[in-house]
Each structure stands twice: as structure tokens, then as C-alpha cells.
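hey so u asked for the seq, here:
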Amino acid sequence: MATLNKLFVTLSILSLFACSTNAQLFPNFYGRTCPSLQTIVRREMTKAINNEARIGASILRLFFHDCFVNGCDGSILLDDTSTFTGEKNAGPNKNSARGFEVIDAIKTSVEAACSATVSCADILALATRDGIALLGGPSWIVPLGRRDARTASQSAANTQIPSPASDLSTLTKMFQNKGLTLRDLTVLSGAHTIGQAECQFFRNRIYNETNIDTNFATLRKANCPLSGGDTNLAPLDSVSPVTFDNNYYRDLVANKGLLNSDQALFNGVGSPVSLVRAYSINGFAFRRDFAFAMVKMSRISPLTGTNGEIRKNCRLVN
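ran it, C-alpha cells below
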């Protein structure tokens, strides 16, 4: 059955490629120029996950934050310099975005095999897929051919990345601005089945909100005081935060969503509520739809052709 499920997801994603209008990205983009690319990325991500399982969630978050700011162009990877302001110190990223060293390590290995050939944006897309798969999640065929941005936008990062405090209407609008539907929002939020969040991002929820399980709130208060401890961590998935499964949705049904932006999917009535219920019961449907949505998100405004560049160092423009 597992093999059949994987086959179904693969065939479904192939059909997504067939109907895509963005023909400049395709799975075998580096087939001749860097045939060992995917093997290298998988090897390095396996090392990273074995060292720290949480890093899979961190890389996924980097990819999400990258794609939501001027498209999936690797701009989030750029360091600030005396003459350049990147996105790393924007509010949603400062002191919380992590995993840059893993992307650096992958880039170094890829450069050794195929110099000046593979973009950092594509490396991030592949690393994200592999991190999820290594934590038990779905795999998918990654469309490739992105080029790297020479610019970044701290202001866009501050305004276009959803906040953990966002309500459903705000989340829906922000996703729609990127060409993503309410269904995409609901399934991509399932990324929070892995990873952790800092106390400062869920303090208001556990102390002031009412649509929360009281025992769950009490448990989280133990590591998140009313003042101080802003960077103390708690798992986004209360049961299996290093396994990619559908327990995130079971948490929402039980009013155990850690962030306001999580529980917002299961307030009131409407399609998010029914979809959350469906995913809480059917893990295969979640995995299938998540793979679809990740491919869709990965196609947000990529730089292709002669636009952008292939960075030699993911942290710096050439």
C-alpha cells in the first residue's frame, strides 16, 4: 500500500507539471550539467537530520520565508553587508531563521561536483523536500531551474510573511497574494507537524485566548512565563514534533494549536474546519495534498533564463 501511495503522489505531481504554465522549471534541469545533484543534497541532508532532527523544520521554514518574499529566489540566504541589507534581520527572521550552515555545506559539496552550475534557490528547494522525507513525510519531484536573486527586501519580509498572531482572514489574503488558495493555506500549515516555536510567539495564546485546551495551556505555561523566557521553545506538534504526520490537525481539533495562526484554521465554520477534520483522520490525504501544495508554492515567481545569477556563495552576490 505504501508503494501504491507513493506512486499515486508521483503520478499526480507529474500531472501538475503537465498543466503548469511555468515551463521554464522542470525536474531534469540539471540532468546533464550536474547529474549527481540530488544524491549530494540527500546525503548532506541525511547528515544534518542525523545531527539534529529539528533542522528539517528549520530548512522548510527558510524555504517558506524565501518564497513569500519576491518568489523562490534564494534571497533569504543573503547576509547583510556594509552596502547591502538582506532579509535575515527582518522581524520574522531575526534570531529565529536557522539552517543557513546546512545550505552552505550542501552548496560546498555541489560546487565541488558541478562548479557554478546549481543555484542556491534550487538547493534550498531540494533540501526542503529531502528534510521532510527524512522525517517521515512525503517526497515529490522538485521542479528545477531557478536562479538566484541579486537583491533582497527586508521591508517585504516584514510585511509579506504571515505572523504567528494572524487571524484567518489575514492569512487567507496573504496566501491569495501569492497565488495560493485557502486549501493551500490549510495544507501548508500542516508543516507545523514538525518544529518548535519560541515562547514570545505563543505567550498571548496560552494566557489570554479562550479557544484553547486548559490542560494544554497549563503545560505550555510551565516553560513560557508571563515575562521573560521569550526564546524558550515548545513543540508545534504536541505529540510527534520530529515526525512528519497528521497529528498537527488532531491538535487543532482538540484546541491544542500552539500558535494563534494554527488554531485560526479550526475556529467557527467553513472549509478550513472540514479540511482540518479530514486531515486529522486521513494522513495519506494530507501527505498527498502537502506534496501538491509544496510544488505549487515552489513555483512562486522564480528567476529563470538570464534573470538573476548562479551564486558561488549562497550568502553573497557574485
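Residues 2-161 form a domain with the Peroxidase; domain 1 fold (CATH 1.10.520.10). The beta strands are 196-198, 233-235.
lmk if thats what u needed
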